Amino acid sequence: MKSPDFSRSDRLSDLIRTEVSIILRDEVRDPRLNGLTIIRVELSKDTKKAFVFFSPLNSFSKIDPEEIIEALRKAKGFIRTNLGKKIKIKYLPELSFHQDMEP
Asked: pTM for this structure?
C-alpha cells in the first residue's frame, strides 16, 4: 500500500511554484515584477487551472498591486511557455495570478 505522503496534485503545484519563481527571477525583465515572491500554487481538482498566489518581497514597494497584476497578466503567456519547456506534462494548467492576502 502506498503511503499518503503527497498527492500528484501537491507535487505538481509545488513544482509549478518553484519553476514560476525561477522564471520570474531569471527570465522576466519587467521591473514591476522585481522582488515578487510566489507564496503558493493551488490547482483545480481537474488540474486544468493553477491559481498562483504572490506577495511583493519588499513591503515598502511603491508599485501599486494593480500594476503588478497587470504586469503578470502581460507576462502570463511568456511564463506559461517557459513553464511548459521545464515541466513535461501532458496538459499544462492555465495560470491565474492572485495577490496573497494571508498574514
From this structure: 0.87
